[in-house]
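Batch job 17 of 40 flagged for manual review because the log was empty.
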Amino acid sequence: MKHRKGVPVLALGLILAPPVLGFFSPFRSPIAPKQHKLTCHVYVSIPSLSLDQYIAASTDIVRATVVGRRAVFPDDGIAYTEVDLTVNWALKGTAQGLLTIHIPGAEDDTRITTADHCPCLTIGDDVFVALALDGESGILGVMGLDQGVFHVVTDSDRQEHVVGVDTNNSTPTDFIARLGGQ
């Protein structure tokens, strides 16, 4: 056995052996290779508005709970997620009951489409949402995408706060008063 800079050649051969042996290697991982999803990204540009501008521009503002989500990959157009909201009360407009809104971007087992500025809504979230009705399609969407969603979070002292653009971490009561809630 020859030595090259103090490393036995035989030892080098053993280090290389497992990849060369492939399927029959005793070092082969039992985990299947990772499947990669087909990925697409959509670039969206939206103006930054103040809370007061969202209040004025939205057709509806609701406090709601997220109760469902479905990815939609149409044959024509951009993939989107349908998000079901149970309206707790409408602060502006006439929205009530169960609403379905569309948010650009979607993910399933084999595909993912992401879009800039899209709100992250998960089942169980308590949110205020500024909504806008698209006159052409009749589809209800979020005004300003992620800027039009305000999450209600509970801190360690069990106090609720509204988190989002221009909310100043206010309580839901203060936030509703600012919205001019009924």
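Reviewer: the log was empty due to a logging misconfiguration, but the result itself is present. The CA atoms of residues 30 and 155 lie 43 Å apart. Unflagging and moving on to job 18.
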